[in-house]
Specification:
145 residues; alpha+beta; Muramoyl-pentapeptide Carboxypeptidase, domain 2; five-stranded antiparallel sheet; 4 helices; 5 strands; 32% helix
Length: 145
């Protein structure tokens, strides 16, 4: 059994596919051991209203564009679960975005250990070359099929 994560992360895992939850928990253990920090999973399952709110950001409401679709894997899928999560390193009140690559290493190591297939938002085409086509969603991980 993999150890639970911080309260915020556990709360944000409600409604997320159990395979992705297991990967997230294992990745958190790996990050703590290798890098000395805990991953905070800041988003999991989204409602239609939440996805619409995020889609409007940078278009009809203030803020930067943070999503390019209304049909995100964060929303409930045919599996009955959300199949995407966003994770970051949070220290105090600061998000340390520079640690996204470390989190990705932990997520992929955990996925390999659990025989799960995931896709990273910084490497949508899954060719192992992050950001080569301008992919910018580094906190995002989803089940790949």
């Amino acid at each position: 059994m993999t150890a639970k994560m911080n309260e915020r992360s556990e709360r944000n895992m409600v409604g997320v596919h159990p395979v992705l939850v297991a990967v997230a928990r294992k990745a958190n253990e790996i990050c703590k051991a290798k890098y000395g920090f805990e991953i905070t999973f800041i988003e999991g399952l989204r409602t239609d209203a939440r996805q619409l709110e995020l889609y409007a950001q940078g278009r009809t409401t203030k803020g930067p564009i943070v999503t390019w679709t209304l049909e995100s894997k964060h929303k409930r899928q045919a599996s009955g679960f959300g199949e995407a999560i966003d994770g970051a390193h949070i220290s105090g009140k600061s998000v340390l975005w520079n640690d996204c690559d470390k989190i990705a290493k932990c997520m992929f190591e955990a996925a390999d250990m659990l025989s799960a297939k995931i896709r990273w938002g910084a490497d949508w085409d899954m060719d192992g070359k992050p950001r080569e086509k301008g992919e910018t969603d580094s906190p995002h991980f989803e089940l790949a099929r």
